[in-house]
């Protein structure tokens, strides 16, 4: 076992480079730190490149199953614990991190994969973004579109907040609003385009949702862009009973997503 | 106008002391920074003690209405901008902060005020806690119980995340689980005690909710305490359609709270 101990090693230098988002984008990869995230990525069929791990992690019997599966998919690079800690962005990377290829769908393949899509318009907060992806997966959505101006989905904080959900949903990001609207007009014309709007006449629980839909959720402070709002084929409102002007974006997305799932299940149960 | 410029001034020294949570608890107060929060607190009927403001904030015509209302309720203390910034915890307190009395209900008065209660069991994240309070208010809940071991509700981050909601709901915190269960057995026996439980047989959208209820939400990592779970009079589950083991605590609370509100509104509309 060849164990890297120098930060001047080429593989460590490459890894260090990947901690700048510009370099990750250029390479089309993202980084996962810690056992739990890597297990979730493996379960979700992620496309691994390299795994950096400490000798202690490799030798621990409780990691045998994970490592046997990973070994089939990625190059193993052994690295001293101190050097791994120095490189990683989390305080304690728990002895392992992985470089994974971005699985981002380009163009119309995406729409063939996804019936229920959550569209995120300039969402800024990584925790919010991650929670929305986690919730969308839980509610049976199968696609995420993050429009240009949203936080990078492959940001560590976003990935952690998805609790592994990011690996079981089709992702499309950095799409401009213009291109999205053009696509929707042509190939994807069979989607219901849903907007939550305080001015809507129909409550979210009154609406009959179509099977193929795109739920649009807007920026935390400013809501949905006016043009997206005008493009919506359906507008719904969530009732506000108390002295509150609006809901958190992730909360609004959750309430509507689970209303959609509940309707589907009710129809099945009846 | 007497403008304080020295950090050795007694009033500034007192304010500085209040930035330690131990001292806030002893005094029974909390601090609000910035115009928007103070407006929300005023609208919610908060009990103000002192207002620290800069001469510039006082002189700005757009603050006239707020200041006229505040003047009736609190002592005004003028302070130089640099000194205010040095003292405040937010980077930019926007020229004003206020010391406000905690409006915490003690004992059974609380139950007389609150029909729909959200109970928070050892919630750790201030953002989660604040979002849950904001959402509870929006969904028409009128009481919050935060059991011992939860983050302090009067923490600045919690207050900010409530978006003013904290001032329009009855609050009870630092209650031990034992005391809560004892109270519920006696005076508050008419409440439905609801727990979200993955093992439940009934989906959240199938359940018929009572008018008086306590929705119990558990710690982000470990869920609801076993004894609380066993005390529940109703257990419901939120369906999980995708490859996700659980929902974020604030999301689970939102989905159930708005199902309860939707049922009420449906009954009214029919």
UniProtKB/TrEMBL annotation, chains A, B:
Protein keywords: Methyltransferase, Transferase
Protein name: TrmH family RNA methyltransferase
Assigned GO CC terms: cytoplasm
PANTHER family referenced in this protein's UniProt entry, alphabetically: RRNA METHYLTRANSFERASE 3 (PTHR43191), RRNA METHYLTRANSFERASE 3, MITOCHONDRIAL (PTHR43191:SF2)
Family recorded in the similarity comment: Belongs to the class IV-like SAM-binding methyltransferase superfamily. RNA methyltransferase TrmH family.
InterPro entries registered for this protein in UniProt: Alpha/beta_knot_MTases (IPR029028), MRM3-like_sub_bind (IPR053888), Ribosomal_eL30-like_sf (IPR029064), rRNA_Methyltransferase (IPR051259), SpoU_MeTrfase (IPR001537), SpoU_subst-bd (IPR013123), tRNA_m1G_MTases_N (IPR029026)
GO MF terms held by the record: RNA binding; RNA methyltransferase activity
SUPFAM superfamilies: alpha/beta knot (SSF75217), L30e-like (SSF55315)
Residues of the RNA 2-O ribose methyltransferase substrate binding domain: 31-106
GO biological process, one term: methylation
């Amino acid at each position: 076992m060849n164990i890297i101990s120098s930060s001047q090693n080429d593989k460590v230098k490459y890894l260090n480079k990947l901690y700048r988002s510009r370099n990750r984008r250029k390479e089309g990869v993202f980084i996962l730190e810690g056992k739990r995230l890597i297990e979730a990525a493996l379960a979700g069929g992620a496309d691994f490149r390299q795994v950096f791990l400490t000798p202690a992690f490799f030798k621990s019997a409780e990691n045998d199953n994970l490592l046997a599966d990973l070994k089939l998919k990625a190059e193993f690079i052994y690295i001293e614990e101190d050097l791994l800690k120095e490189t990683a962005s989390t305080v304690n990377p728990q002895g392992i991190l992985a470089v994974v290829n971005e699985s981002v769908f380009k163009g119309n393949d995406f729409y063939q994969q996804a019936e229920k899509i959550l569209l995120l318009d300039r969402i800024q907060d990584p925790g919010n973004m991650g929670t929305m992806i986690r919730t969308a997966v839980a509610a049976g959505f199968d696609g995420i579109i993050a429009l240009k101006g949203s936080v990078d989905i492959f940001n560590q904080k976003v990935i952690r907040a998805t609790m592994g959900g990011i690996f079981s949903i089709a992702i499309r990001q950095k799409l401009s609003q213009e291109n999205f609207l053009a696509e929707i007009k042509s190939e994807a014309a069979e989607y219901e385009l849903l907007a939550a709007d305080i001015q809507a006449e129909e409550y979210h629980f009154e609406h009959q949702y179509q099977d193929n839909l795109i739920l649009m959720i807007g920026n935390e402070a400013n809501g949905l862009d006016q043009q997206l709002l005008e493009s919506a084929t359906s507008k719904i409102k969530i009732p506000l009973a108390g002295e509150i002007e609006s809901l958190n974006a992730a909360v609004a997305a959750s309430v509507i997503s689970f209303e959609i799932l509940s309707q589907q299940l009710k129809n099945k149960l009846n």
